Amino acid sequence: MTLQEIAQSINIECDNTKEISGLSTLLDSTQTEVTFLENKKYLNDLKKTKAAAVLINEEFANEVPEDTIALICDEPYLNLAKLSKLFAPEVIEIEGEKPVIGGFTKVMPNVYIGKGSSIGSDCTIMSGAYIGDNVKIGNNTVIHPNVVVYRDCNIGSDCIIHAGTVIGSDGFGFANTKDGKYIKIYQNGNVEIGDDVEIGANCAIDRAVFKSTEIANGVRIDNLVHIGHNCKLGMGCILTGQVGLSGSTILNHYVIMGGQSATAGHLEIAPFTTIAARGGVTKSITEAKKSWAGFPLIEHRRWLKLQSKIAKLLK
Fold this sequence. Notes:
Blueprint lengths: L2 H7 L12 E2 L9 E4 L6 H6 L4 E4 L12 E4 L3 H9 L15 E2 L4 E2 L4 E2 L4 E2 L4 E2 L4 E2 L4 E2 L4 E2 L4 E2 L4 E2 L4 E2 L4 E4 L4 E3 L5 E3 L5 E4 L4 E2 L4 E3 L5 E4 L4 E2 L4 E2 L4 E2 L4 E2 L4 E2 L4 E2 L4 E2 L4 E2 L4 E2 L4 E2 L4 E2 L9 E3 L4 E2 H14 L2
Parallel strand pairs: 1-2, 2-3, 3-4, 5-8, 6-9, 7-10, 8-11, 9-12, 10-13, 11-14, 12-15, 13-16, 14-19, 15-20, 16-21, 19-22, 20-23, 21-24, 22-25, 23-26, 24-27, 25-28, 26-29, 27-30, 28-31, 29-32, 30-33, 32-34
Antiparallel strand pairs: 17-18, 34-35
């Protein structure tokens, strides 16, 4: 679509006919993408953007770089939600190349493999699995029954995905109108899973709004884990049962999270951090190789002392 057509769809005047390929964040945008600024804390990112255009409030319009067009509007985030639908791919491709399946790969009955997908050699795809369009799976990977891999997602080699897990489902993203109506933000990214990753049963790994939700090599994920959109898990992370990661959480390498622990969104956890069971992470953790517990989160040793004092009060 041209920038003029995009602007007209949300009732903004613009006569620029540059071709636009999609939407992205301020820092990740290319010269053929549109981005947005809703919160002034990202003004520094605005100054660095290479986007063709930015949805922005009038009060910040003078901060837009010279080579970027300001699409001035009252509600940039809401307009982004409306535009996201324009770039959403088809749910299912009717036409396209037949899937490619490598040698010695076993595909059991009642498996669907979409257009343009490829599966490496020596894989096992069990009954009830759904592999969407344009999915790539490496060599020697096992997909257990009733696993769903949405379109455009990639899984590496030597992986094990257990029954009932969903990879690439939509992230939880909505914008509010002034009267309270929810407008869906279409999740137009994907999920990228590295090599030697094991994912337990009935997990949900959401696709990104833009770009990718990333699971690095060697990650181990237990049953019933939810990973929100645009999260990034570094090499060797371990997430145990019922862990929940809110959107855009970054776990650096070898982070361990105990059962039912969780994070707020848009934060980062330092390498070799351990979060004890039911720990609630609400702020970024910058110091590596430390253990934390409780909610609000405190260092694990202090949490143990606190529990001891509370126990004595009850005697």
